[in-house]
Amino acid sequence: MGEFMNKKDQWIMGIETSCDETAVAIIKNGREMAANVVASQIESHKRFGGVVPEIASRHHVEQITIVLEEALNQAGITYSDLSAIAVTEGPGLVGALLIGVNAAKAIAFAHGIPLVGVHHIAGHIYANRLVAEMKFPLLSLVVSGGHTELVYMEEHGHFEVIGETRDDAAGEAYDKVARTLSLPYPGGPHIDRLAHEGEPSINLPRAWLEEGSYDFSFSGLKSAVINTVHNAEQRGEKIVPEDLAASFQQSVIDVLVTKTGRAMDEYKVKQLLLAGGVAANKGLRAALEDKFANNPGIELIIPPLSLCTDNAAMIAAAGSILFEKGIHSGLDLNANPGLDIAIHNDK
């Protein structure tokens, strides 16, 4: 008991600037969220219909010190209390990543704190550890604006991508379909809302790919939606946006849920984790709960909405595992926009 009482608390700061959120969080002992601050730039990018890299970088420069101070204030600690600094090193927009990486390196150097580079998707997966402890082997369905992947894990910090998108990620397809329907950016939440008001009455394709593949493809579905709208316009017919959204969403969810179920059976996992920005989609969450929530022997973990979109708590959670494994980065750490998630397996 005395040994437990004397154990020093581990405080990990996470920094996330891979796209258009400037985020800093502090996690205590791997799983307890002491602070989670996010400064979003959605309003700045909305009029362009997507994220403008140069504008994103400038906003990160303006916000990073403010967000750092706010996180420390929320947690009630100072830099001297930190065990390590975890930062997203990639993938992402290189200019945006550089702001977070250089801020993390400056803090690490100035205060003599260990630095830990974290893969952005590893962060999304580890957001689930802030909800429940991970049980191995497990499978994570990662669905975001730039990524759609099935990731198998046998242990902490070891990632095997068994399926990935061959073209458009699911979130990217959502945004492009939303643009076709003249919905504002980001399109995903608007499509999700409309889908719940309509009926999936329009026949749209599902790309299953070759037998046994866990890869995804949404480019054909996106094109089918665009063609459906254009053909209706040429015939002078009116497409019901709610029905088109419902049909599109059902097609995406059917493929995601079916392939996930097959992978769960083949890999005999104990847990299924949902991760990424599209994990906030109500239709997807409901479909996974309906299909897998009562699956004997397999626990379904779905993080709260605040931990689905980009945040730094997930980076700190992933970083705490790497730190405990003794995996640190040098002060030569650089932004890596094309970083492979399997890189952590070899460190």
From TrEMBL:
Q: Quote the subcellular location field of this record.
A: Cytoplasm
Among the Pfam families in the record, one is TsaD
Q: Which GO terms describe its biological process?
A: tRNA threonylcarbamoyladenosine modification
Catalyzed chemical reaction(s): L-threonylcarbamoyladenylate + adenosine(37) in tRNA = N(6)-L-threonylcarbamoyladenosine(37) in tRNA + AMP + H(+)
* UniProt KW Cell membrane keyword: no
Q: Which residues form the Gcp-like domain?
A: 33-316
Q: Report the PROSITE patterns cross-referenced here.
A: GLYCOPROTEASE
Coiled-coil stretches are: none
**Signal sequence, start to end:** none
GO molecular function: any one?
tRNA N(6)-L-threonylcarbamoyladenine synthase activity
PANTHER family noted in UniProt: TRNA N6-ADENOSINE THREONYLCARBAMOYLTRANSFERASE, TRNA N6-ADENOSINE THREONYLCARBAMOYLTRANSFERASE, MITOCHONDRIAL
Q: What does this protein do?
A: Required for the formation of a threonylcarbamoyl group on adenosine at position 37 (t(6)A37) in tRNAs that read codons beginning with adenine. Is involved in the transfer of the threonylcarbamoyl moiety of threonylcarbamoyl-AMP (TC-AMP) to the N6 group of A37, together with TsaE and TsaB. TsaD likely plays a direct catalytic role in this reaction.
Q: Please identify the protein, giving its name as recorded.
A: tRNA N6-adenosine threonylcarbamoyltransferase
Which gene is annotated as encoding this protein in its UniProt record?
tsaD
